[in-house]
């Protein structure tokens, strides 16, 4: 807009050049270069006075067109500068606030569709936004992360210095969701070298790259193409089954898959008798299906993988959300 004002004023002065005079050489006609010179010094309010409007038409144009254009030009420049400085100041404050709390946080590499969905799920489940850091190189992704109130580190996540700025060495979890499997593998290797204890979840596009991702240090690998392919196949074979699977993958409505602690009142019971639909039991960091003989009776310290309503309903209250005692607390 500022350039448009500048160009428009130059053309306006040049077309009305007969109404201007160069006081250094009154006999010389104002040229196009003179119009550029006059416009720049006038819009910047410098105004040397060596070129001046003398005709009535030129003075009216200066009074009613060029003067408002000068004000608009200055407002644009000053406003843009202040906006940039304010944005940088807000980001510096956000980063400074985040660095004070840095530790036990979540680093999300890649803020595309998968990265945004992962962050939404984390936040919906109680994760503090100030404990999430996004690493990305794309300007659009970074703008989206800023708009969502997240701390952002700009750069390539395969570089050590970028990951160090994101505080990977002190992170609890790292989610890697770039669109390239080779970048995901290299980022996983780098993260694992910087933080041997972090829980790393990484996505791969092709199933054949999943073992390589595991060898690189990922604790959990999600194959996006296989997952989408299975959902498409199930929806084709059984539209109702496909809708149920989509419901399970959609947060906030219908059904959800969740992990919860075992309650004291549930110790010693079979998984099939609990209010939630138990599909697996985590015992000693091993996952057992609900029908496995090892977990015929639930023990203290067990964690349950359940299918339950996404929202608590009057006829389906969520166990563990009404001040019940967890079995792990009394172990």
Q: Could you please describe the fold and organization of this structure?
A:
It is a single chain. Helix 1 runs antiparallel to helix 3 and helix 9 packs antiparallel against helix 10. By secondary structure, the protein is of the alpha/beta class. The strands form 3 sheets. Strands 5-4-3-6-7-8 form a 6-stranded parallel beta sheet, with helices on both faces. It has a 4-stranded antiparallel beta sheet with strand order 9-12-10-11, covered by helices on one side. Helix 4 (113-124) links the parallel strand 3 (106-109) and strand 4. It has 3 domains: 2-93, Helix Hairpins (Orthogonal Bundle); 103-228, 3-Layer(aba) Sandwich (Rossmann fold); 255-330, 2-Layer Sandwich (Alpha-Beta Plaits), CATH 3.30.70. The model has no long low-confidence stretch (mean pLDDT 85). It has helices at residues 2-15, 32-43, 56-101, 113-124, 139-147, 160-165, 181-194, 210-216, 224-237, 239-249; strands spanning 20-22, 51-53, 106-109, 132-136, 151-154, 173-176, 199-204, 220-223, 255-261, 277-283, 286-289, 303-309. The chain has 10 helices and 12 strands.
Quick structural summary:
The protein is α/β, with parallel strands linked by helices and 331 residues long. It is built from ten helices and twelve strands.
